[in-house]
User: Which sequence fits this backbone?
C-alpha cells in the first residue's frame, strides 16, 4: 500500500471558509487505486506552524507523494504551481496574528521546482473537464512558504513527488468571504464537485 498525502489549509484573514480544508477532509481515506490510499490533513495558516505541521504529517504517513491545495481568491481557474520562491510578504499577518520574521523563507536558492508529472497532470485535468493554468508565482504568503520548505526537505523526507495547486473560491464559500470583506471586485468561483473532480484526477496520476 502506498500513500499520497493531500493537504489543504485552514481559514485565514479574509477567508473564513477555506475550500481546501473541506477537500482534505473529504478525501481522507479515499482509495485511488487498490494499492494507493489518500491521507488528508489540514494545515494551519501560520508562519511558524504550517511547515512543522506538514513535516509531522510526512513523518507520520511516509507518503510517496505530497499534493498541497491552497486558496487564491483572485485565481480565475486552478493554478498548478511550477516553482516555490524564497520570499515572504512582510507585514502580512497569519491566522494567529503573527508576522514573518524576514523577507526570505530561509537559506537556499531563489527558486525550487516542484516535482510532478506535468504532461500527465494536464491530460488528466483536461479529461476531467476542469480549466487550469500553469503558474511560476505562488505568491509570498503561507502557500509559497510551505511549498518552498517542502521542496527544500523533500529528498531528506523520502518524498518522491510533490506539488501545489492554487484554487479559486468554491461557490459554497462566496457568501462567507463576502461578509468577511475578503472578495476582490472581480473574482471567479467553481463548485465543490469540480474541485473534488480535479483533485481526484491529479491524485490518479501523481
Assistant:
Amino acid at each position: 500500500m502506498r500513500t499520497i498525502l493531500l493537504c489543504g489549509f485552514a481559514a485565514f484573514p479574509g477567508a473564513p471558509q477555506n475550500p481546501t480544508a473541506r477537500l482534505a477532509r473529504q478525501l481522507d481515506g479515499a482509495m485511488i487505486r487498490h494499492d494507493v490510499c489518500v491521507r488528508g490533513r489540514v494545515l494551519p495558516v501560520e508562519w511558524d506552524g504550517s511547515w512543522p505541521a506538514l513535516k509531522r504529517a510526512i513523518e507520520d504517513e511516509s507518503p510517496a507523494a505530497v499534493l498541497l491545495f491552497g486558496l487564491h481568491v483572485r485565481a480565475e481557474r486552478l493554478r498548478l504551481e511550477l516553482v516555490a520562491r524564497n520570499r515572504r510578504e512582510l507585514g502580512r499577518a497569519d491566522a494567529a496574528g503573527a508576522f514573518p520574521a524576514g523577507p526570505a523563507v530561509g537559506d537556499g536558492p531563489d527558486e525550487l521546482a516542484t516535482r510532478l508529472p506535468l504532461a500527465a497532470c494536464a491530460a488528466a485535468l483536461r479529461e476531467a473537464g476542469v480549466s487550469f493554468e500553469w503558474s511560476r508565482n505562488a505568491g509570498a504568503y503561507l502557500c509559497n512558504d510551505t511549498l518552498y520548505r517542502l521542496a527544500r526537505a523533500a529528498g531528506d523526507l523520502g518524498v518522491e513527488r510533490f506539488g501545489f495547486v492554487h484554487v479559486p473560491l468554491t461557490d459554497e464559500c462566496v457568501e462567507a468571504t463576502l461578509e468577511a470583506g475578503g472578495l476582490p471586485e472581480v473574482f471567479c468561483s467553481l463548485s465543490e464537485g469540480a474541485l473534488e473532480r480535479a483533485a481526484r484526477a491529479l491524485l490518479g496520476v501523481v
User: Anything to note?
Assistant: The longest helix spans residues 142-157. Residues 76 and 188 are 5 Å apart (CA to CA). Helices lie at 19-27, 50-61, 118-128, 142-157, 174-179, 192-205. The chain has one domain: 2-205.
